[in-house]
Amino acid sequence: MRLYDGGKAPNPRRVRIFLAEKGIEVPLEPVDMNQLGHKSEAIKRLNPLQRLPVLVLDDGTAVSESVAICRYFEELHPEPPLMGVDAQDKAVVEMWQRRIEMHLLLLIANVFRHAHPAMAEWEVPQIKEFSEANRPKVLASLEWLNEELADRPFMAGERYTIADITAMIALDFMKPSRIELPSHLVHLNRWYDSVKARPSADA
Q: What is d(CA 111, CA 115) in angstroms, rounded to the nearest whole number?
């Protein structure tokens, strides 16, 4: 088993944090995304979309998409549960994971990919107007999440889950996207401080 890893990029970090929370060690194969290593023929053979991370199992099966990789390890190592414990809980965790992925992380990625000079060769065409159009949507999502966290400690309820991993990755991604977390969002800031204090946050 080997995990082709993309360093500081959001999706590779999601998997590494998930593994750290589980206490699972997987051999890493570093890929330099700054040098477009993910566009190599070797990665293309594993994932035709040329994106990271990619988990290659012992039988040669290649699993891409960060949440799919996390699901694989959740099934093998259900403790601690990061994707739910029963039908209802799993549905709620998945709901929040998807909401945060689609209504926060994706919006921040749009801001970054369509404005940052380093992404000019990646995002073709790079449309700066689209970047600016997504900024207010990010801020609206932050306001919404702040309200949601007024009466619970974590994104999906009383327990830390993959939804918190995705949300923390999203907020971390705001820095290179030049979006500030408003200080008046006290519940969201409290949550962010708590998840950033976890040892896994440095994975």
A: 6
What's the CATH superfamily of 2-76? Glutaredoxin (3.40.30.10)
Nearest partner of 108 among 170, 162, 165, 51, judged by Cα = 170
The token pair at 128 is 């700066």
Paired with 4 in beta bridges are 29, 54
CB 16 within 8 A of CB 52: no
CA distance 41 to 92: 39
Q: CA distances (Å), 22 to each of 82, 97, 119, in order?
A: 8, 18, 33
> Which uninterrupted H or E stretch holds 62?
strand 62-64
Residue-wise pLDDT tens digits, 58-101: 999 999 999 999 999 999 999 999 999 999 999 999 999 999 99
We find that the CATH architecture of domain 87-202 is: Up-down Bundle (1.20)
Residue 190's nearest CA partner among 149, 159, 160, 156 is: 149
Domain ranges in the chain? Answer: 2-76, 87-202
Note the pTM of the prediction, 2 decimals.
Answer: 0.96
